[in-house]
Amino acid sequence: MNRYSLLFFISALLIASLACSSLSRVKAPDPVISNEVTQIVEIPTSAPAPTEQPTAISQPTAIPPTIGPLEFFTEEFDANSSQDNWMHFSEGSGKESNLRIEQEGEGLTFDLGALDLYLYYIYTPHMYKDTKLTIVAENQGVNNNNVSLVCRMSSDNSEWYEYSFESGGVWYLYAYNGGYNVLDNGGSNDLKQGKAINEYGMTCEDNVITMYINGKMLKSYTDRTYRFNEGKVGFNISSLNVLPVIVNVKSFDIAEP
Predict the structure, then answer these.
(1) For residues 202 and 163, is the Cβ–Cβ distance under 8 A?
(2) I want to staple 91 with a disulfide (CB 3.0 to 4.6 A). Which of 60, 118, 123, 167 is the partner?
(3) Alpha helices in the chain (DSSP H)
(4) What is the pLDDT of residues 141-164, one digit of tens each?
């Protein structure tokens, strides 16, 4: 190797050593520090226990249906009964000044307090065509009075059919239109006289009226004259010529015939 070749070799070796030394002195860049705060969210492994008991959802209170006046029913006139759907008026020469109508125990007690007083007690909410009426009544006064059933009373109380039973055992069927027109009458030994309880029945169906006493049929009558079509229903307690007339009405039933 000549001198020039040796010098070139030494020069190349020196340059390579300097390059390696320079590379070893280059540092890795510093890490970049961010100002953002990273929120660390812990994922629970199970549902946390509630701090308060959940509020129960209250159920709406059921509102009972409004019960209006009934068409077919039995009125027992007890302490819970309302008389708002009933009205009364009177015929005859007697005055109502001493009239007493009171709820006492079982039923409604009528003390007429006057002679010749025909007291009508009428159910007003409905007009009826065909009905079966039943009244249970106890005589608590003298054995001289009338208990009656009424059907097809007009709205102005000017006409009606009336089945009336005297306490002595005689009965009448009237058509009233300003006066009492006798349609039929008779007698029966099936009435319990004196201070006793009796059941009176009457059906008004088409133009046929049928009368009962204590479950036994007395007679059917076909009206071809007045032909009252429909109306209110009710009953009557009448005094004649002796007092006291006191009758306790235990029930009044309105049914389909």
Answers:
(1) yes
(2) 118
(3) 3-24
(4) 999 999 999 999 999 999 999 999
